[in-house]
Amino acid sequence: MQSSRRGFVALAASSALASVVSTTARAADPKEHYGMVVFLKGSEFFNWAYAGFQDAAATVGATTELQGPADWDASAEARAVDQLVAKGVKGIAVTAGDADTLIASINAGLKAKVPVLCFDSDSPKSNRLLFVGTNNYNAGVAAGTAVAKLLGDKARIGISRIPGLDSINHRVAGFTDALKKLAPGAQIITEVNDEGDLQKAEPVNTAMLQAHPEINVIFCGHGNPATGALAATRNVGRDKEGPTKVYVVAWAIDVPILQGVEKGDYGMTVAQNPYMMGVQSFLELWSASHPTQFDSMTNPGFGHVPTADLDTGVKMLVKGDPAIKALMTPPKL
After folding, report:
1. Lowest mean pLDDT segment, chosen from 15-19, 75-79, 287-291, 301-305
2. Comparing C-alpha atoms, which of 91, 102, 108, 97 is closest to residue 73?
3. Is the pTM of this model over 0.85?
4. What CATH number did the domain enclosing 149 receive?
5. Contacts of residue 9, Cβ cutoff 8 Å, sequence gap at least 6
6. How far is it, in rounded angstroms, from Cα 242 to Cα 234?
7. 114 is in which domain, residue-wise?
8. What is the rounded CA–CA span in Å between residue 305 and residue 79?
9. Residues 92-108: pLDDT tens digits?
């Protein structure tokens, strides 16, 4: 495992690492093949996730492949799941670009006796075996807590998000609840739809700041709008330290974002642990595809998987945090 990956693993629970080691006790059929499906192939975040998936698979001699559209397209993602099921893979980890769009494909995979779980972004109404990833509500609470400590009751927040994603809904809910508890005078002024588009994030956030000059925080509900939100603060001349600064709270671990945090451009970023999402997703798929005397309590015919979601946690990164250096070299796939 590369040193950069070891640095990310340091953010994970030690019990998860122990489970990686334990899998070496049983070797898989070398023909076993597993798939990961993402809604934005090529992103650094999902490269980290797939790196963890690959590393975990290597401990048992299994092979893997990464599928999914290069542009955000939940329908194309669903088709990728269908294709992997038809191919006869031993298990599929999928991050739902849209919670409802993936339901039919996930359920069809399970009906075909292919273990399917969700990671990063859930499809809770589907029959997926498990969700592995950030507890998005708790992560939102962490972000809201950080903003409350930074600005207290003076916080006036605009939110950049995409409607319809279960993960973002929970993040915003946690963020809002933390502010209500810790800074009851803080206000969420408005929300904008950035459509998950890097280019559209700048104009919609610029318009938001122009329409609501009282906003002093932009909370990014997902990974894409941070650079556009930062550009928007520059467009209205509110990117410098001082009483008029707008603090951008990113939700990403891309190298440009990490560099921006170190420079003080971003107020902070919410760092999820996609590498461990990949590790845990593979381990649970492997377990599900190998029934033992302890079969799944809720999904007969599959091996045992936890009955509760697995939370891979977050870390709020601010300028000077040593974890930033460890993340500066993303995996090359």
Report:
1. 15-19
2. 97
3. no
4. 3.40.50.2300
5. 1, 17, 275, 276, 279
6. 14
7. 3-133+274-312
8. 25
9. 999 998 889 999 999 99
